[in-house]
Amino acid sequence: MATTRQVLRNLAWSVLLVAGMALVLCLTSWIVWGPGGIPWALAGAVAAALLLPGLPAGLVLRAHRARPIPYAALPEIHDALAALAARAGIHARPRLCWCPARQPNAFALDDAGVPVVVITDGLLRRLTPPELMAVLAHELAHIANGDLKIMRLADGLGRITGLMAWLGIALLALNLPLILLGAVTVPLAAVLLLIAAPGLVGLMQLALSRTREFAADLEAARLTGDPAALARALLALERSGPWEAIFRLRHQGPGLLRTHPATAERVRRLAEMARPLRPPLPIRTGG
């Protein structure tokens, strides 16, 4: 089935990209410290992913001027979000927040194990209830799929790779007189790798982000049973006003520099999986 193929494809790409980032880190640390530096570099990347604090959820919410939506204000949306979370295997009841931005957008946070889904005023006004449910399911899918942890690991690999590359270039600069005198020989390939390593890992991080977006689309469609609603939501967001173009550069820039895949490709993949899905989740979306 198309759905099974997409699951395997997304998983394979995620594994390959993380392995590729780890490989670049290993090569960079080998150039700087030799074979003995590889385990320390990998351990440093894992430690960075686990120990370096991310932005607290409260700070992110304050930065976006987001505030909780009372249950009485949108009871159907609250109930639908809780039902989607239960279907996704998320045991904590998600918190739903609203921010006044006109740009249609949504994002998810993990606040000490409690999912927080933030929707903008523009998103709430632009989408129909089924489309809004699909977007909420997409954000919950990021949490259920462990994407926050995966991207933190990728960030740790990127940070340590950048550190190794900086140290390597600094050592080259310190030894430049010896290199010019011919007393020390440095392979050109090693120099080029040190220069290119941070950029290579950065491109792989962006590719990983796009892959996790495909996976979240797939899981959202499985949660709601309605891939067409998510496809309509994506197309509606694609038709946002021109004044929002700067906000949406992550979707519209060159392919290699996007954090999100092209909308047309996302819609095509959703269309592929429309037939084998189970019946839609019965969620009351009207008053």
TrEMBL record:
GO terms for cellular component: plasma membrane. One of its GO terms (biological process) is proteolysis. It is found in: Cell membrane. The chain crosses the membrane at residues 12-32, 38-61, 160-180, 186-208. Coiled coil: none annotated. It is a multi-pass membrane protein. Residues 75-273 form the Peptidase M48 domain. Keywords: Cell membrane, Hydrolase, Membrane, Metal-binding, Metalloprotease, Protease, Transmembrane, Transmembrane helix, Zinc. Its cofactor is Zn(2+). GO terms for molecular function: metal ion binding; metalloendopeptidase activity. InterPro entries: HtpX_protease, Peptidase_M48. The keyword Nucleus does not apply. Binds 1 zinc ion per subunit. Belongs to the peptidase M48 family. This is Peptidase M48 Ste24p.
